[in-house]
Design a protein that fits this description.
- The protein is an alpha+beta fold.
- It is built from five helices and 21 strands.
- The strands form five sheets. The protein has a five-stranded mixed beta sheet with strand order 2-9-8-4-6, with no helix packed on it.
- A hairpin with a 6-residue loop joins strand 10 and strand 11.
Length: 327
């Protein structure tokens, strides 16, 4: 009897253990499917690298990439230059050629996608090609109608190697139609010798001005993502890039203003010549500077005619004494 009871417990314990394992596997599988795909991609990449197979892109990832392009006009074509390579680093490169196909899917109804080519070859280091371990193609996004502010279009871009191994890189692109959330106003009154241009940037993000790493021009970065960049990379980004042009016959810049000093140091000023009394003088007539997210700043100008009142608001409209644009 004693032996039978022990055996019974063992049988029940085994059944319970198997049931628990099955339940745990179902739960883990349900909640970690995305992690499982990531792990599978990691293992696959490790295997391919062990075969000296390197298939990468500056715009696409094996795990998929999400790219959002903001402030697209919605009326002009948008171009994406995609670079492919067969390099793990500067030392490890693929010796064999890699053939690949290019495709797109899940395209919004309001755009058409055009590819500069539908297939390519990344020539290996042992090939006779003058260009080794790199290739490129271009994607053109064409709106089929004039899209309105706030509308968005999207598509998925894929590049799949076909030889010697199969690997797919992809990215989901979303283009959002809109204008930069930047406003400005001029504070002035008659008899005052100067006026201030007050600028407010209500945007909560940065944009890539010069491509670097896996980031392309126009891509949006959150403030936290921007803060994680190196100083060199931060210098390639901006939130709002403001340009002010003006007529020196009407007003002149305060050359002690920090915006002017910074613009002059970075060669972001423009000049014009004016003839006065038979002499030619050079005046600054424009400058460009950056405004950080959720920030207000002010630029001072001195009036040639102090009786004038140049008060203005970009929200209310009207005629402005300066021409302010932003990207």
């Amino acid at each position: 009897m004693k032996n039978r009871r022990i055996t019974g417990r063992k049988k029940i314990s085994k059944v319970n253990l198997i049931t628990m394992i099955v339940v745990i596997l179902i739960i883990v599988s349900y909640f970690t499917s995305s992690f499982g795909r990531y792990a599978l991609n990691f293992v696959n990449d490790f295997y391919l690298r062990s075969k000296e197979f390197y298939f990468y892109s500056n715009k696409l990832l094996a795990t998929g990439k999400t790219v959002t392009i903001n402030d697209w006009p919605g009326t002009d074509d948008y171009y994406i230059s995609v670079e492919m390579n067969s390099r793990e680093n500067n030392i490890l490169v693929a010796r064999d050629n890699i053939d690949y196909n290019i495709s797109y899917k899940d395209v919004s109804a309001d755009v058409q996608i055009f590819l500069s080519k539908t297939s390519g070859t990344i020539y290996g280091s042992e090939s006779d090609s003058d260009v080794k371990n790199t290739d490129s193609f271009e994607v053109r996004v064409h709106p089929t109608r004039a899209l309105q502010n706030g509308e968005a279009v999207y598509f998925t871009l894929e590049a799949t190697s076909t030889s010697p191994y199969v690997k797919t890189l992809s990215a989901v692109y979303t283009l959002v139609v809109g204008k930069a959330q930047l406003t400005y106003k001029i504070i002035d009154e008659p008899g005052q010798p100067y006026f201030d241009v007050d600028i407010t940037n209500a945007m909560e993000s940065y944009k890539v001005g010069t491509a670097f790493g896996s980031y392309s021009v126009g891509e949006e970065l959150t403030v936290s993502a921007y803060e994680a960049l190196s100083d060199e990379q931060k210098a390639l980004c901006y939130s709002a890039r403001v340009t002010i042009n003006f007529n020196p016959n009407t007003c002149v810049m305060d050359i002690t203003d920090s915006h002017y000093i910074e613009a002059a140091k970075n060669s972001r000023t423009t000049t014009t010549t004016i003839n006065k009394g038979g002499n030619t003088y050079t005046y600054v007539n424009g400058l460009t500077f950056d405004v950080n997210p959720l920030t207000s700043t002010s630029v001072r100008f001195y009036k040639n005619d102090v009786t004038q009142d140049y008060t203005y608001s970009s929200v209310e409209g009207g005629t402005c004494v300066v021409n302010l644009t932003s990207i």
